[in-house]
Amino acid sequence: MTKEEAENGRDDMVIDGAEQANAIPDGFNANYLRIYYGKLFPHADMFKWMSYGNDGKHPACDKSYFGRREFSFTLENDIYIRFQSFNSVIELENSIKEKCPFKIDIGPVYSVDPAKRHAYAGDNVFTPVEREVVFDIDITDYDDVRYCCTGADVCLECWPLMTIAIKVIDAALRDDFGFNHILWVYSGRRGVHCWVCDGKARRLTNEQRAAIADYFRVYKGNENSHKKISLPGPVLHPFLARSYTEVLKGFFEAKLLPNQSLLSSEDRYEKILEMIPDASVASELRGRWQDNKRASMSKDDINLVRWDQLKSVLQSGKQKTQGIRRCVEEIVFSFTYPRLDMEVSKHMNHLLKAPFCVHPKTGRVCVPIDPNNCDEFDPTTVPTLSQLVEELNREGLRQDAENEWDRTSLGDSIKFFRTTFLQPLLKSCKEGIESSYNAKLQQSKNTLSWTRQGFFLTAFSPLAGKHHAWLI
Amino acid sequence: MEVVQSHRKSSSNNVIVSTLPLYRSAPPLEVRLEDFELFAMDRLRVLKGISDGLGRGKKPEEMEKLIADLWKANMRHPQANEEANKDIISHFVLRLVYCRTEELRKWFLSMETTLFRYRFRFQSSEAQRALMSEFKLPYKAVSNAEFESVKDKLGQVARSMGQTLAAADAIFYKVPFEEVPELVAGRRVFIHKGHAYVAMNQVVSLVVTQFRSYLSKALILTNRRVVGILAIVIILVDISFLVLRGYLTNPRKWTSTVREQEKDRLAPIVEALCTSYLGPDYSQENEVGEISLKDIYQIAKTSFPLCMRHLFEKVREDHHLKHGGRMQLGLFLKGVGLKLDDALAFWKAEFAPKVSAERFDKEYAYNIRHNYGREGKRTDYTPYSCQKIISSTPGVGDHHGCPYRHFSEENLRAALVRMGVSSRAVEDVMDKVRNRHYQLACTLTFEAVHGSSCDAGINHPNQYFIDSQRIMQSKDSAYLLELKKSCQVFSFALDEEPLCSVWL
Question: Among its keywords, does the record have Metal-binding (chain A) (predicted)?
Answer without folding.
Answer: yes
